[in-house]
């Protein structure tokens, strides 16, 4: 799975807006608990809230249900937000070395907004991670409820991707009787094969760019810092999206 390039992120953002009407979106993020047998001498590290032993597949998914970035092997006891922030991809998003494009105007507005990931309530609100408002808040505010609807509609691509993955590779329907190290390899292999099959069935420039570009990619060693993004707060960015989805600041 190739490290993301700025070109790939830009194509992802365009596709998310065209298909799911969510602008400046780099991907939908979530974690999937993959059931395993209890590893020896592991204590409660792998015991999750679902009352089973699991490792976590943390994934950023594109608009066509393909995996853009994954992190495999997080302890089942940990939250999705904590696993993401402690992962390599999470740290690189935080320090600005994921080749993320610079902030740009939301369509037909004057609001310069960073590119973001979209997740559920388990993630921490940041300038590059958007999450829904609490239901108690959104119920009494129509504008925030509209934002929640738009975010959840675009965010469901990650849930759909996990469903497609499990239906294609039926090993996900039962506990993996493997060592943790071997289970990680199986999960990674199925994700790569899933992307391969998606590239064969979805003939779009977006997917072609993921696998057939000739550009030399040094994204993971890039020292680029997106200072404009780092200076914005998550609340301020989310407010910009609330205004956009409710017709504010249009030009």
Count of helix runs: 9
Count of DSSP E strands? 7
Overall helicity: 40-55%
What general form does the structure show?
globular
Judged by helices, strands and strand pairing, the structural class is alpha/beta
- Please list the strands of the largest sheet in the order they lie side by side: 3-2-1-6-7
| Averaged pLDDT | 86
What letter string, H or E per element, gives the SSE order? HEEEHHEEEEHHHHHH
The largest β sheet comes out as: 5 strands, mixed
Detail the poorly predicted runs.
205-230
Q: Terminal Cα separation, in Å?
A: 40 Å
Beta content: 5-15%
Structural description of this entry:
The chain is of the alpha/beta class. It contains nine helices and seven strands; from the N terminus they run H-E-E-E-H-H-E-E-E-E-H-H-H-H-H-H. It has helices at 6-20, 80-86, 88-95, 135-138, 142-168, 180-201, 205-212, 227-230, 234-245; strands at 25-35, 54-61, 67-75, 104-105, 112-113, 116-118, 129-130. The longest helix has 27 residues, at 142-168. It is globular, with a radius of gyration of 18 Å.
